[in-house]
Amino acid sequence: MAAWVISVGVMIFEKDLGTSLLLYASFLTMVYLATQRFSWVVIGLALFVVGSVAAYFLFDHVRLRVQTWLDPFADPEGSGYQIVQSLFSFATGGIFGTGLGNGQPDTVPAASTDFIVAAFGEELGLVGLASLLMLYTIVIIRGLRTAIAVRDSFGKLLAPAWRRRWPSSCSSSLAV
């Protein structure tokens, strides 16, 4: 329950949905690995749904982020600007991309942080993004295999925690 409160607090006070989701997903993963009880995950997911719905209706910044993510073209010059520009970057990249260093970094305002995948997709195209996703998948599978092979309890929690943390942050960049 404390991790839920901390995650919701980060979302409310810092207005950082990505960090809040990463923190909570990592917590749920660790709870499951430590207890091996799927019921705790179900309870955690239920709390996540309740918190998400409440945040959507109670906080304007959450509602705006969700609505912008669902339909960025509703306000392409305002709140949807970054998403629309990132979609244009992907379109410019096409199948094989424009080549390393040949992208337009000024197109997407936060290309070096939140929208790094858009810059990557523009320069390396669909083939480059597919390669990146395959790399993420390999890292996830190797992390799971390592966790299965480890015999001590600390290692059983450490391997999946790292495996969960790194791809989660990468996944949040992909979701933006």
Automatic annotation (TrEMBL):
The chain crosses the membrane at residues 40-59, 124-144. GO terms for molecular function: lipid-linked peptidoglycan transporter activity. Keywords: Cell shape, Membrane, Transmembrane, Transmembrane helix. It is a multi-pass membrane protein. GO terms for cellular component: cell division site; plasma membrane. Coiled coil: none annotated. This is Cell cycle family protein.
